[in-house]
Design a protein that fits this description.
The chain is α/β, with parallel strands linked by helices. It folds into four domains: about 80 residues, Arginyl tRNA synthetase N-terminal domain (Gyrase A, domain 2, 2-Layer Sandwich), CATH 3.30.1360; about 160 residues, HUPs (Rossmann fold), CATH 3.40.50.620; about 100 residues, no CATH class; about 180 residues, Orthogonal Bundle (Isoleucyl-tRNA Synthetase, Domain 1). The protein contains 21 helices and 13 strands. The strands form four sheets. The chain has a four-stranded antiparallel β-sheet. The longest helix is centred in the C-terminal third of the chain and has 25 residues. The relative contact order is 0.10.
Length: about 600
Amino acid sequence: MEKILDLISREVMEALEANGYDGKYGKVTLSNRPDLCEYQCNGALAAAKEYKCAPYMISDKVAESLKGNPMFASAESVKPGFLNLKLDPGFLAGYLQEMAEDTERLGCNPCEDPKTVMIDYGGPNVAKPLHVGHLRSAIIGESVKRLGKFMGHNMIGDVHLGDWGLQMGLIIVGLKEQKPELPYFDEGYQGEYPKEAPFTIGELEEIYPAASAKSKEDEAFKEAAMQATYELQHGRKGYQALLSHILNVSVSDLKRNYENLNVSFELWKGESDAQPYIPDMVQKMKEDGFAYMSDGALVVDVKEETDTKEVPPCMILKSDGASLYNTTDLATIVWRMEDYHPDEIIYVVDKRQELYFTQVFRCARKTGLVGPDTKLKFLGFGTMNGKDGKPFKTREGGVMRLEYLVSGINEEMYKKITDNHTVEEAEARETARTVALSAIKYGDLSNQASKDYIFDIDRFTSFEGNTGPYILYTVVRIKSILKKYQAKRALPEGAGILPARSASEKALMLEISKFNSMMESAYEEMAPHKVCAYIYDLANAFNHFYHETKIMAEPDEMQQAGYIKLLELTKRSLEACIDILGFDAPERM
């Protein structure tokens, strides 16, 4: 169905044209003075220049033409030429009823031209636990992916594992020191390698940091790790078998941790998957004259005449012939284009990597890895900081493991729930987990992605204010009212959303009506914070209406049923949004 702003704008455009003016001046916006009106059109101010008259002369005529229009309760011209509009309660109720009858999409039209969009988010390294630095990429990426799916696009999420390079060599030599008898280290071994990994995830997470620390002090150990990395990358069977074990053990643990965040990926590809594409890609860059030697390294120039800052060449191979992150990311684009032919690839990464991705994107486009119709988008996010304004750390000053952060907030929510209510243990734990996830995700996503923000656990877990728990409490309150109503009676035949009888009811209806335009703009701008802003305003509008209206004590059966239908639509709107944000609401709180 059409967005309500488009419907209103069309009426104003027709009124302009009926009075001899160009309809292009009829664009309507939400009012910036809600105390005066609900919508406004300022087009007469611009039109006055073309028609060489006072703006109010135009707005007066348009207002007069709109009198009696069933869409509007009032249309007023205000000097110097503003057009102030209020919707007719009957029209608004009819619009919401149409939304309610769309059981799947609440009147939000899917995109007319669906795209295949790959979204690169997550980016964890294997053999290392997720830490708080992985949080923003995971939940912003997941939310953008869900937004895209809701709008009808084919969204493909790829975790893009860090499973290549020196860290693999460090693990191999670290394991060799501990268990030199394993067959993976015997170059003459001809048998089948064990199916079971020779380490647990806990042991693996100890091997890597120990080996990394040793390599900084022991040059021979570092040389051995670099040699192991080289041999792994050139196909040594024992090391390839170890890589498979590392991936299997790590990915199982990563999946468990991401599932705790309600984050999932369609693809679990890594840097290693791009390696087979590198030789041909490099050769073609050379043959086409894009890649050349500079100080021993192979590079591609990516600077442009319009650059105001220096953009260095994109390095393809180091002087020793080794590949870099640039090489892997470019080769990843090659396989993504070959296997999925995406219309767009979105990278959800720290905003401090913007220059790096500028180099990679320009190199990919210049060398023909992507065509002109494929978009490459950098969605950079800011830093998650502690209350001291510095990057979030543990009390000891280290980087906090993500699962410890999540479990800590789970415990905080469990304590709040059990302090206020008598609840069975299992239900309290599950509710705490659900509400804690809303606190974490909403706390992050309610900020514009590119901005740094303060991760304030006390504020995020509050049941008051602009928080996830407040949103969930509102959904649970609506569920409770609906259950009470359903326990007493069934909806009468013909029940539907009725014209508002109070200012608070109309304000709630106006907030609901913004749903489809909000969804469109949130995806177009890759802006989950717009979804958060919408549901916060919607929750506030509902709670204001709830406190002013005796819903269950309403004596008129059809009026009460109208309230119930309005509550159902409010709940569905809130639930559709929190699903996009990546959490849901419990039955009770």
